[in-house]
Amino acid sequence: MYPRMPDLKKLTDELALYAQLKAEYGAPGIAPVLAAAERALRASLAHLKKLPVNKTLRAREPDDLERIRALRPAGPRRLWQQFDAHAYRDRIAGALIGRMAGCTLGAPVEFWPVEKMQALAEELGDAFPPTDYWRRVPDPHGKRYNVSRREAYSRAGMAGVPVDDDIAYTLLGLLIAEDYGPAFTLDDVGNAWLQYLPYACTAEDIALRNLKKGVPAAQAGARDNPYCEWIGADIRADPWGYMAPGWPECAAAMAYRDAYLSHRRQGVYGAMFFAAAIAAAFCTSDPLEALRIGLTEIPRDCALARAVRWALRVAPTIKNHSQARAAVDAHFKGMSGVHTINNACLTIWGITIGGTDFTRVIGETVAMGLDNDCTAATAGSIVGAVIGVKNIPARWYSRFNDTIHSYLIGKKRFSISGMLRRFDQQARRVHRQPGVPGVARTAARGGGR
Questions:
Q1: How, if at all, do strands 143-144 and 148-149 pair?
Q2: Pair 104, 161: CB distance under 8 Å
């Protein structure tokens, strides 16, 4: 899939080290050598940016919503014709609690190798894959996102839901809908980021910086952004599923408008897929059915759709976290550990391994590694929406204390009970719409039933 990648980091590190050494030895002519190396690297980068993309592949993977919808397979599009308040109440609590629990379990070991997580569990006497929050975490007084101490992600140190970007974007999605309505625009998303988001990572960081420079929202995700297919947009997908329960087409459309600010192609499709799957999870007793429905809201032949179908096809052979990790490492060799595709497959296998056993779902998913606070959060959200909060063991939320900590500007603390009421209000608002909010009627006719 990828060309052989030379170890450019090692090469540039050695270049800098030898420049320092030669300077210490009084060698002449160091500056021109370094300048030539910099020019060569910048020229190579510029050349790579200008290389044309494959037109046939591009046609199968469009970025505009109308063409995306035209390439979808047939799907149910809408499962609830009207809002089901009784069914929603328990399931939205399960989805939100599930997301926060999966994220909080994975956050202190984010990107850790499997062996390192296993060693920590053995040192602490904890089960692995984990069946509860970590007893203790390394560097307990260090802070994540300059707010929550790392010990706040452990069983003993927890006092409310500690901060994480996976949670912050769920909060931000709700604020966008409250401030601008369900038919919010891409420009509205950009304005909300400027108002509420103090900092970001990878693709979101690029988009936020571009917005601050005055780049229009429609271009902010495409300018100087090599991260545009990474996982960032799909970790923002959950609120759209929460606000369009039983309406996967609507959830995917809202996720598209959010994702396009920072992502393209697989990055956008990942957000649409998971938003639709979460919306469907409110209407089914089988999380696998929710995933299959989610697949009907993205182009049938895009790389993510092919990867998801592969993951579902081989799922019966994936029995545990170690087999899952080995499978993605082999199948997507060379892919970034923060990519949408490989992490989506791990999320799917966490769900297929655990089924409706919430503890096993998030424990196995975290144990797979890669971007495991993101994958466990998404898996927990989907399964939580299927089983409802009444079927999530209380140990996963007993220390949440009805409190969510945040780093959003001017919004440092939320109550869980308040969030549930607010999502309920927005879901009712969405379901009062006669069609998909913010989508032209001409676009709504594309892509099957």
A1: antiparallel
A2: yes
At 246-264, the pLDDT tens digits run: 999 999 999 999 999 999 9
Q: Which of 193, 189, 250, 255 is nearest to 218 (CA)?
A: 189
Query: 10 Å Cβ neighbour count for 111?
Result: 13
Backbone angles phi, psi at 274, to 5 degrees: -70, -35
pLDDT value, residue 442:
37
Pairing mode, strands 404-408 and 148-149 = unpaired
Closest CA to 203 of 171, 226, 186, 180: 226
Give the integer Cα–Cα distance in Å for 127 and 223. Answer: 45
How many angstroms separate the CA atoms of 33 and 18, rounded?
Answer: 11
| Encoded tokens for 268 | 């956008």
Q: CA 53, CA 55: separation in Å to the nearest integer? A: 6
85-106 and 266-281 helices cross at what angle (nearest 10)? 130
The pair of structure tokens assigned to 119 is 């060693």
Do 241 and 204 form a contact (C-beta atoms < 8 A)? no
Rounded Cα–Cα distance for residues 103 and 148 (Å): 14
Angle at 209 between CA 208 and CA 210, to 5 degrees: 90
The amino acid sitting at 286 is: D
Spatial separation of the C-alpha atoms in residues 410 and 236, rounded to whole Å: 20
Q: Which residues, listed in sequence order, are joined to residue 342 by a DSSP beta bridge?
A: none
d(CA 155, CA 13): 40
| pLDDT tens-place string over residues 148-190 | 999 999 999 999 999 999 999 999 999 999 999 999 999 999 9
Torsion from C-alpha of 248, 251, 257, 260, nearest 10 degrees: -70
Q: Cβ(149)–Cβ(141) under 8 Å? A: yes
287 CA to centre of own chain? 18
Q: How many Cβ atoms from other residues are within 10 Å of residue 104's Cβ?
A: 31
Do the Cβ atoms of 163 and 406 come closer than 8 Å?
A: yes
Asked if 353 and 323 count as a contact pair (C-beta separation under 8 A), the reply is: no
CA distance 191 to 184: 11
Contacts of 59 (CB under 8 A, 6+ apart): none
What is the C-alpha to C-alpha distance for residues 268 and 297, in angstroms, rounded to an integer? 11
DSSP sequence for 153-167: GSTTT-SSBPP-HHH
